[in-house]
């Protein structure tokens, strides 16, 4: 194997974390902000890109890091290396309620496509790059632009799904229609496109957006019930307005109450 061969255990139900066991000189790479805890003999190091092409020279490292910038991620990732004599553990936590999904890339044909904010961590040697869309519809209306992340290699990677995770195995030609934000990731054999919902009433009054994703098999698709964007919009909608004073945004009066008591700041 080119990637480090790691063992792991996932703990928890709704707020999960993954504990990765590293043999001496084994390492794992992770996005900034996902680290939870580690044993004493694990060395933490900030690296350009994902650390999968450290022998390609300065230009190769810069290109790898530059690809991450296009997905909205940092130029840097963090590597955790076991420099001790025995097995050591390092743990990474999910960013919000949901499930951590282990992806064995050797069983996915060496490649897996995921939303840019779904990746959590992976064995060192796994390449975390970008996947350009070749279709204009997907690029303009897919919710994530032309770019998604692709994980390549033969090691273990871990992605996060918000809420409850659904795993769908599609037969050749079988199609699944999904809200664009609810996609966590899918096998590289899955054909992914964006379709217009259609109909004036559906488009204007449906409340589900104008487009949905169509995923056509063969391959495996992972779906999340609670995308972070949906969670954030609900929290924002329920947040008190007017200097933090809650006047019952959920009541019948709503904003009218602000006018009646003289607070007309919006």
UniProtKB/TrEMBL annotation:
Signal peptide: none annotated. InterPro entries: AIM24, AIM24_sf, Trp_RNA-bd_attenuator-like_dom. It comes from the Bacteria. This is TIGR00266 family protein.
């Amino acid at each position: 194997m080119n990637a480090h061969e790691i063992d792991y255990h996932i703990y928890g139900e709704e707020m999960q974390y993954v504990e990765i066991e590293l043999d001496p000189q084994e390492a794992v790479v992770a996005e900034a902000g996902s680290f939870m805890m580690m044993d004493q003999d694990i060395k933490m190091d900030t690296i350009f890109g994902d650390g999968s092409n450290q022998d390609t020279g300065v230009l190769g490292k810069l290109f790898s890091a530059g690809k991450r910038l296009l997905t909205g991620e940092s130029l840097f990732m963090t590597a955790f290396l076991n420099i001790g004599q025995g097995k050591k553990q390092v743990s990474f936590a999910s960013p919000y309620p949901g499930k951590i999904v282990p992806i064995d890339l050797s069983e996915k044909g060496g490649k897996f496509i995921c939303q840019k904010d779904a990746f959590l961590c992976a064995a060192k040697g796994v390449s975390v790059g970008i996947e350009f869309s070749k279709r204009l519809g997907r690029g303009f209306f897919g919710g994530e632009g032309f770019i998604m992340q692709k994980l390549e290699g033969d090691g273990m990677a871990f992605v996060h799904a918000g809420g409850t995770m659904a795993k769908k195995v599609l037969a050749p030609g079988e199609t699944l229609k999904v809200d664009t934000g609810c996609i966590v990731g899918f096998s590289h054999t899955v054909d992914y496109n964006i379709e217009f919902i259609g109909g004036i009433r559906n488009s204007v009054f449906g409340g589900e957006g104008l487009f949905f994703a169509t995923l056509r098999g063969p391959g495996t698709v992972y779906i999340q019930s609670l995308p972070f964007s949906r969670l954030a919009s609900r929290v924002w909608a329920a947040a008190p307005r007017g200097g933090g004073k809650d006047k019952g945004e959920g009541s019948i009066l709503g904003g009218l109450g602000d006018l009646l008591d003289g607070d007309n700041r919006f």
